[in-house]
């Protein structure tokens, strides 16, 4: 298996189509069929390829400032981790998450943050659930328009400390969309 980091603006049309196909199969009846992102383009894609150079795993990274209890924190958000259905449970998702860990080393990043319905792979890789009251910009994914501001405790929120700051379950303003 080969893992590659690709900046969003460097995606070729062919690779973009492969990502779109993997996302559509991984998130059926949820993911927009006509694009390779859900709400917003990630900054970076971490991609796993098999020996035949076919895309078998994906995750997007979004870098931004958030406000945690009145203080700015630098966050990398994980977006759309997925692995080809035929080869799941072989450690590919964990390999992609380890690549995120390597990416964060020595960079101005305090936390890695994500929202997960299925938490097992993240728990095995050092992520912890958190019950922050979150504020975020709501996006209509079909029309690609802002719908307003949301605020609630998010049961799906998970974090990993990768810098020198410590996480608290205080109010969290995402200062943007919900991953």
UniProtKB/TrEMBL annotation:
Question: Which Pfam families does the protein's record reference?
Answer: Acetyltransf_9
Q: Where is the N-acetyltransferase domain?
A: 6-142
- State the source organism's domain of life: Bacteria
InterPro entries in the record: Acyl_CoA_acyltransferase, GNAT_dom
Instruction: Name the chain's protein.
Output: N-acetyltransferase YhbS
Source species, please? Paenibacillus shirakamiensis
């Amino acid at each position: 298996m080969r893992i590659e980091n690709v900046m969003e603006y460097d995606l070729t049309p062919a690779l973009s189509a492969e990502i779109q196909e993997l996302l559509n199969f991984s998130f059926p009846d949820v993911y927009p069929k006509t694009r390779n992102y859900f709400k917003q383009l990630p900054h970076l894609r971490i991609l796993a390829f098999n020996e035949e150079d076919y895309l078998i795993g994906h995750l997007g990274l979004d870098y931004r400032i958030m406000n945690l209890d009145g203080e700015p924190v630098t966050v990398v958000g994980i977006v759309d981790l997925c692995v080809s259905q035929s080869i799941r449970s072989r450690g590919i998702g964990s390999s992609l998450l380890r690549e995120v860990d390597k990416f964060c080393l020595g960079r101005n990043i305090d936390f890695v943050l994500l929202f997960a319905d299925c938490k097992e792979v993240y728990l095995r890789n050092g992520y912890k659930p958190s019950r922050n009251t979150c504020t975020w910009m709501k996006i209509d994914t079909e029309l690609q328009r802002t719908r307003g501001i949301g605020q609630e405790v998010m049961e799906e929120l998970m974090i990993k400390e990768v810098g020198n700051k410590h996480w608290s379950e205080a109010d969290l303003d995402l200062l943007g969309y919900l991953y």
